[in-house]
Amino acid sequence: MRVILLADVKGQGRKGEIVEVKDGFARNYLIPRGLAEQATPGRERDLRQRQVQEAARKAEEARRLADMAQALDGRTVAVSARAGQNGRLFGSVTNTDVAEALRALGYDVDRRKIVMDPIKTAGDHRVKIHFQPGVEAHITVRVQLT
Q1: Looking at 28, 45, 63, which one is the last position of a domain?
Q2: How many Å apart are CA 135 and CA 118, to the nearest integer?
Q3: Domain that holds residue 102
Q4: Taking Cα atoms as reference points, which of 97, 123, 109, 111 lies closest to residue 73?
Q5: How far is it, in rounded angstroms, from Cα 97 to Cα 108?
Q6: Residues with Cβ within 8 Å of residue 125, at least 6 apart in sequence
Q7: How far apart are CA 20 and CA 7, in angstroms?
Q8: What is the pLDDT of residue 87?
Q9: Are 6 and 31 within one domain?
Q10: CATH number at residue 102
Q11: What is the DSSP string of 91-138?
Q12: Tell me, what's the pLDDT at 84?
């Protein structure tokens, strides 16, 4: 029986694939558990349409991220922090602080995409933003004392 997998099934295939399995395995295990549905011509056509739409959505997202990376590359972002008498910060500047500063500039960057160690001193620091494989931007974080 040909089935469309609705979830990854070990030994059979990944979600969205059309696979040939034994009738009993499909009727007694895959279909009742919601792991697969029988592959009819209409369902196969719907699956192809969903795959085309998903590919278009991923391409649009990749283009948007590449544009954002190009716009951010080389920019300087200012972050204010309190410091003691010797110039050492109380606490540190983290990726969350940098993401908030970028959001204030109009760039919505997920904090988990910002690759950096916590900054504990004032001055300029280079930070990498890893959007997706092959798409990166390097910004300068300027830590200013308040």
Answers
A1: 63
A2: 23
A3: 68-145
A4: 109
A5: 13
A6: 116, 119, 140, 141, 142, 143
A7: 15
A8: 74
A9: yes
A10: 3.10.430.100
A11: EEE-HHHHHHHHHHTT----GGGEE-PPEEESEEEEEEEEEETTEEEE
A12: 82
- Predicted confidence at residue 129, as pLDDT, reads 95
The verdict on 24 and 82 lying in the same domain is no
| Cα→Cα distances 124→1, 76, 78, 105, Å | 63, 9, 9, 18
If asked whether residues 129 and 115 sit together in one domain, one would say: yes
In order along its 146 residues, the chain shows pLDDT tens digits of 999 999 999 999 999 999 999 999 999 999 999 999 999 999 999 999 999 999 999 999 999 999 999 999 999 999 999 988 777 888 899 999 999 999 999 999 999 999 999 998 889 999 999 999 989 999 999 999 88
The domain total for the chain is 2
Spatial CB neighbours of 97, under 8 Å, sequence gap ≥ 6:
79, 81
Rg (CA), the chain: 24
The domain that contains 15 carries what CATH number?
3.40.5.10
Residue 85's pLDDT is 78
Same domain? 39 vs 73: no
Q: For the chain, what's the residue count?
A: 146
